[in-house]
Each structure stands twice: as C-alpha cells, then as structure tokens.
Write a structure and sequence with these properties.
53% helix; 0% strand; elongated
C-alpha cells in the first residue's frame, strides 16, 4: 500500500489551500473533527443526553460548602 511521504503531504496541503482558501480551512477542519467525533460516539454507543453518575445535577452534599458574609454573622 502507498504511504505518502513528507513531500507528498506538503503538495496535498498546498492543493487543498488553493482549492478552499485560507478563510474556509478552519471551518473545514472544525466540521471534519465534529463529524469524526460524532461517528466515534455513535460506534461506541456514547450519547450526549446521558449524564455521568454524580453529574452536575446532583452534587454531593458532603463536598458542598456554605459561605457567610460578615454582616450575616453579626445578626
């Protein structure tokens, strides 16, 4: 199987830069990364709607602290 060397990668990147332009490359990379992440999550069965155990909705009462101001302590 053919493996691209450093010179071939540079040529491919220059061609991509000429075709898409410098302004669209960040959006193209962002959308490509988002698509790959969604594909990986769908293959592994992860879902954004599921909250991990001990998530933000149910804080542990043992670790929560309360603060009082000086005016509250005087009254």
């Amino acid at each position: 199987m053919w493996t691209p060397g450093p010179l071939e990668i540079v040529v491919i990147l220059v061609i991509v830069l000429v075709i898409f332009g410098p302004k669209r490359l960040p959006d193209l990379g962002r959308s490509l990364g988002r698509g790959m992440r969604e594909f990986k999550d769908s293959v592994t069965g992860k879902d954004k709607d599921e909250l991990p155990e001990g998530g933000v909705d149910t804080p542990d009462p043992a670790t929560t602290t309360t603060t009082t101001t000086a005016s509250e302590q005087k009254s």
